[in-house]
């Protein structure tokens, strides 16, 4: 098997992943690949519960943010389970953290990212064409190219023993806001004139 065939078998997201993501693009699969590699490196299974935490360094307003969906599809560390926390640094990297394991950071190499430039896909994107409106052949071409690049040319992987993280403690305690009467989980209760209130009623931002 050549690199492309090997990567196609290992790193092609399942159909439900594309359905969840909503369109075909090269970056969701690159996030998926990053997630699969991270699980392998850390000796983990796909996350069923709340063990694996991911800290993508992406921001907003750039198409590469699709990476984060791929990471969730591969690892089961999802936003809904509060296992994904973006740093909004606008960088194409993510750190994976699991209790008693050495955290690892994946960075998409600048030279690899430069390799996207000649592809038609980005000409469409730069003209403001949404991925679902780009001819499938054009998208497939760039996706296939990413799969033809070996792992070590796509990602720089670093161990981050310095990366310290303490997951928040779970709590089921909730209180009714004394103003609107809606339930609020205790970590979000604020006190106004000695009474418990929710954040919107409190006038505080956080
Ligand atoms: Zn996408
Ligand atoms: Zn309230």
Quickly count the domains. Answer: 2
Number of helical segments with 4 or more residues: 9
Largest sheet descriptor: 4 strands, antiparallel
- Helix coverage percent of residues? 25-40%
| Named CATH topology of the largest domain | 60s Ribosomal Protein L30, Chain: A
Brief sketch in words of this structure:
The chain is an alpha+beta fold and 206 residues long.
Per-chain topology:
Layout: H1 3-11, H2 15-21, H3 27-42, E1 53-56, H4 67-75, E2 93-97, E3 104-108, H5 110-114, H6 120-126, H7 136-148, H8 151-154, E4 155-159, E5 174-176, E6 183-185, E7 190-192, E8 195-197, H9 199-202
Antiparallel strand pairs: 1-2, 2-3, 3-4, 5-6, 7-8
Helix pairs in contact: 1-7, 3-4
Bound molecules: zinc ion (2 copies).
Overall description:
With 206 residues, the protein is α+β, with helices and mostly antiparallel strands. It has 2 domains: 3-159, 60s Ribosomal Protein L30, Chain: A, CATH 3.30.1330.130; 169-206, Wheat Germ Agglutinin (Isolectin 2), domain 1, CATH 3.30.60. The chain has 9 helices and 8 strands. It has helices at 3-11, 15-21, 27-42, 67-75, 110-114, 120-126, 136-148, 151-154, 199-202, and strands spanning 53-56, 93-97, 104-108, 155-159, 174-176, 183-185, 190-192, 195-197. The strands form 3 sheets. The protein has a 4-stranded antiparallel β-sheet. Strands 5-6 form a two-stranded antiparallel sheet. A two-stranded antiparallel sheet has the order 7-8. The longest helix has 16 residues, at 27-42. The radius of gyration is 20 Å and the shape is globular. One zinc ion (ZN) binds at residues 177, 179-180, 182, 197-198, 200-201.
């Amino acid at each position: 098997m050549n690199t492309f065939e090997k990567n196609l078998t290992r790193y092609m997201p399942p159909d439900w992943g594309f359905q969840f993501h909503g369109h075909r693009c090269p970056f969701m699969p690159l996030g998926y690949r990053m997630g699969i590699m991270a699980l392998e490196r850390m000796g983990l299974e796909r996350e069923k519960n709340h063990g694996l935490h991911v800290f993508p360094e992406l921001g907003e307003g750039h198409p590469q943010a699709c990476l984060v969906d791929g990471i969730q599809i591969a690892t089961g560390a999802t936003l809904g389970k509060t296992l994904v926390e973006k740093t909004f640094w606008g960088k194409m990297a993510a750190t994976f953290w699991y209790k008693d394991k050495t955290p690892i950071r994946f960075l998409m190499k600048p030279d690899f990212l430069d390799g996207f430039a000649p592809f038609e896909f980005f000409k469409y994107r730069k003209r403001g064409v949404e991925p679902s409106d780009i001819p499938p052949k054009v998208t497939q071409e760039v996706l296939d190219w990413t799969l033809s690049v070996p792992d070590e040319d796509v990602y720089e992987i670093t161990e981050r023993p310095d990366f310290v993280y303490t997951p928040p403690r779970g709590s089921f305690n909730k209180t009714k806001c004394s103003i609107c009467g809606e339930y609020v989980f205790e970590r979000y209760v604020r006190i106004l004139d000695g009474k418990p209130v929710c954040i919107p009623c409190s006038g505080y931002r956080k």
